[in-house]
Amino acid sequence: MQVGNKVVGKITGVKGECSWGHKVGDEFEISCHNTANLCGFFYHDAFPAISMLQFGGGYPWGNKDVVTVECCDRYNLVTMELRRIVE
Q1: Domains in the chain: boundaries
Q2: What DSSP string runs through 54-70?
Q3: In what order do the strands lie in the sheet with 78-85?
């Protein structure tokens, strides 16, 4: 059951090698109830943005439907774009 808006994550950058195996171009649906197989560290950091997009919030700058987040591993940095899909 989908609650709120659909959120799609897309890996847009990998510096080094992601220990979880993510590659540039990977795309998946993600939500407050679906971790989309992200490692716990990255999901923890991305969760506030996922929640905001899923439930209609937005930052007062830039595109309110898109947020870029980064994992906490600075040596193997993975960047992900989160996009709200309003259906």
Answers
A1: 6-85
A2: HTT---SSS-TTEEEEE
A3: 27-30, 6-14, 78-85, 66-70
